[in-house]
Amino acid sequence: MSAFAYRHGALHGETVDLAAIAAAIGTPFYAYSANAIRAAYRAYAAAFAPLGAEICYALKANDNLAVVAVLAREGSGADVVSEGELRRALAAGIPARRIVFSGVGKTESEIAFALDCAVAQINVESAPELDAVARIARAKAKRAPVALRVNPDIDAGTHAKITTGTAENKFGIAFEDAPALYRRAAAMPELALKGLAVHIGSQLVDLAPYRAAFGRLAALARAILAEGLALERLDLGGGLGIRYAGETPPTVASYARLVAECVGSLGCALTLEPGRSIVGEAGVLVGRVLYVKDGATRRFVIVDAAMNDLIRPALYDAHHDILPLREAPGAARARADIVGPVCESSDTFARARDLPPLEAGDLLAFASAGAYGAVMASTYNSRLLVPEVLIDGDRFALVRPRMTYAEMLARDRIPDWLAVDPGDDSARA
Fold it and tell me: Which end of the chain is more exposed for a tag (fewer CB within 10 A), N or C?
């Protein structure tokens, strides 16, 4: 949270008072620190430079064009999982030659678009997908650059809903099936087989699962090379976890040392796809207290942000630190549930959280909200999509305006036979 700190008792993003942004655009809103994003990317780039690794930011963590543009200017590549993300990466300035297209369920039109764009690599996750890519490439008279994503059957030790590398997960090719499928792919003239990919999950705060996964990947790579098959690249998947509730994630430097130890001797080019650790701690969600309600057994602080703005607590029981925008040193703390206005009991950001005195109108920041926040937002309860702001030094810009009610309603269409005559009172009786 170094990008967000108190200055003279007021919580700032870099050198911008977050309360000033609230006054300018209203609440709730997301705010991102451009310099925190740059610093996180540069830590990966520096640590992995000796290995010549390509850093491809995973857009699923935060796909705002301004955020992606910050990384594009740093020289980042992109990891995308849909045509929409691919289009976002290109629009933000990341060249197709630095884009990896991942995902377990690519449609034929998405594969065709990726080939037309000449992306660097398509990570294939099943035998049927491999055949589809070959068929589409043949129809286009192209050679499709592919890597096989293998499932190493390694438990990442994270939340069950964000682990991706066990045999029970939908992702990747079963480890025991990978050698035969690799041989088949190598013989297909429509494919330019690049190598192997792996991804075991998100929010890893221990390197041991990576060591196990990369060890299995290295053994498979050696077996493939021993057969005389080409293997240019290893795609090692996501990056590290971040601090939400006191975790102590490994340093990027220690992660790079582990990668060098496990696969550095294979002579393959490397790709890394960090997402959360690039943007997670670079963002906050700011909301305003609406009411403080004393229930029969609990005290509720009701804010104008909700689960449709930040779904992680409802979806994963995730923890986010909650900070008042005005510092209250020495103030007595009291326990309260921090909840939103959505008509769901799961619309709860925190339970029995010790917080300084709060009253209607006070502003709060939900920390470490730059990843899987706005990108997962919705209009549930017909609430307007939350706006986003990019802070860079002493300036800020609205990089995704708040949706208007007119824009929200315009997304729907009433069929002709249900159209209401504005002058027909009986239709509203």
Answer: C
- The verdict on 149 and 220 lying in the same domain is yes
Task: Say which CATH number the domain at 387 has.
Answer: 2.40.37.10
As given in the structure block, the two tokens for residue 399 are 């990089």
**Quick one: tokens of 427?**
């239709």
- Domain tally for the chain? 2
Asked if residue 219 and residue 77 are part of one domain, the reply reads yes
Torsion, Cα 375 376 380 382, to 10 degrees, reads 0
User: Is 343 among the residues known to form the active site?
Assistant: yes
Tell me, yes or no, whether 26 and 41 share the same domain: no
Parent domain of 258: 34-279
Please report, in tens digits, the pLDDT of each residue of the chain (429 residues total).
479 999 999 999 999 999 999 999 999 999 999 999 999 999 999 999 999 999 999 999 999 999 999 999 999 999 999 999 999 999 999 999 999 999 999 999 999 999 999 999 999 999 999 999 999 999 999 999 999 999 988 854 554 444 444 455 566 899 899 999 999 999 999 999 999 999 988 788 999 999 999 999 999 999 999 999 999 999 999 889 999 988 899 999 999 999 999 999 999 999 999 999 999 999 999 999 999 999 889 999 999 999 999 999 999 899 999 999 999 888 889 999 999 999 999 999 999 999 999 999 999 999 999 999 999 999 999 999 999 999 999 999 999 999 999 999 999 999 999 987 766 666 555
Same structural domain for residues 285 and 267? Answer: no
What b/e string do you get for 241-254 counting C-beta neighbours within 10 Å, with b at 16 or more?
bbebeeeebbebee
Q: Which residues contact 183 (CB under 8 A, 6 or more apart)?
A: 227, 229
CA dihedral 300, 9, 283, 281 (to 10 degrees): -100
Q: What are the contacts of 162-167 at 24+ separation with CB within 8 A? A: 162/201, 162/202, 162/203, 162/316, 163/200, 163/201, 163/202, 164/199, 164/200, 164/201, 164/202, 165/198, 165/199, 165/200, 165/201, 165/209, 165/213
The CATH number for 108's domain is 3.20.20.10
Q: Is residue 41 part of a domain?
A: yes
